[in-house]
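During the reporting period the student researcher (J.K.) took over the structure-prediction task from the postdoctoral fellow and processed the backlog of single-chain submissions. One of the processed entries is reproduced below for the supervisory committee.
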Amino acid sequence: MKSTPKGMRLHIGLFGRRNVGKSSLLNALTRQNVSIVSNVAGTTTDAVEKPMEMLPIGPVLFIDTAGIDDVGALGEMRVQKTRQVFDRTDIGLIVTEAGKWGDFEEAIFAELQQRHIPFIVVFNKVDVVQPDPLHLERFAKLAVPCVSTAAEKGEGLLDLREALVRTVPEEFISPPSIVGDLVPSGEMAVLVVPIDMEAPKGRLILPQVQAIRDILDNDAYCLVVKERELRDALDRLNRPPALVVTDSQAFLKVAGDTPDHILMTSFSILFARFKGDLSEYVRGTMAIENLVPGDRVLIAESCSHHPIGEDIGRVKIPRWLQQYVGGKLDFVHVQGHDFPEDISSYKFVINCGSCMWNRREVLSRILRCQQAGVPCSNYGLTIAYSLGIFERALKPFPAAEDIYREMAPAFLNHAH
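J.K. obtained the following structure tokens:
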């Protein structure tokens, strides 16, 4: 479980003022000195992450944040980092000292409610003072779980663990399939994996590994080939595969070598469904038809790797998209958890496949784009549209294909 990817772990964020015992609580829960504990307010400067196995939930990621009440210029930077954690939190813990519930806690309470993130109120240091009965009564009426702890003494931790188990979102207990529902038991998928300069030496990239595991978990099997060997591999099969999945960068060649009667898509499009909202991404991708030279386009990568060669986000997507639009676009790139507070100046946002993120963070970005009225897509969908094979890449997903067919007449009236 230690090697479970971060993006597939349940993200549990600890929020509260400085010096209310968030770090002590995390250390007590994990039984390790993960965060520095001090009587000096503001000891935790950046979010501290701790992956662990928490039975019976499974793989989780605890995120200890800086105090939301931090002050000064540096304090504001810390608070901004804490706000970013909301985007990827599956369960929130509002940690406060008993008797000190106030405006800061109410702000966290409202933020979690507005985002529909399940949360637990933790009254820490109850060995010093007990929680206000009026607060307990209020939270009981709102069906908000409350737990009393004394983290440094190890008190109340079992109650907190039990509350966490009861609060786990259903989608984490019964996660969606990456590809297994598209490849029936006993059938085959052909996975096309280019090996180029950007391929990691000695291994496959995460979406490819996770797709293979998902296929095996669903009692199907797969054949893994490079794009140059695909046609020969298909000719050798005595019956067609249920699905061909390619790296988006090889879309054109794979589409040309895969007969029309065989379903085909990309790893990135599979992850648009697995980690995000495929239907919303399809709607957003159609807005490519409205782009004109000079428009600003934001490209957001979850990884912070150093781009090399024909980098997909820095070189290939800009080239293909500009060829489709018929002129230069103004591209802005961000990496990791960084994302502009104000995205209203952008005409289009392109997320990567987001294999390193949990689904909550991807959905948070989609929601922010919706709120700003900015259409968004991801790498695979953008590439498929720019290369003219969008409808074919959507055929494995009938609901998404229907959305495209409904929207296409209106959008294509503005075709270049």
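The committee noted the following: The chain is about 40% helix and 20% strand.
J.K. will present the remaining backlog at the next meeting.
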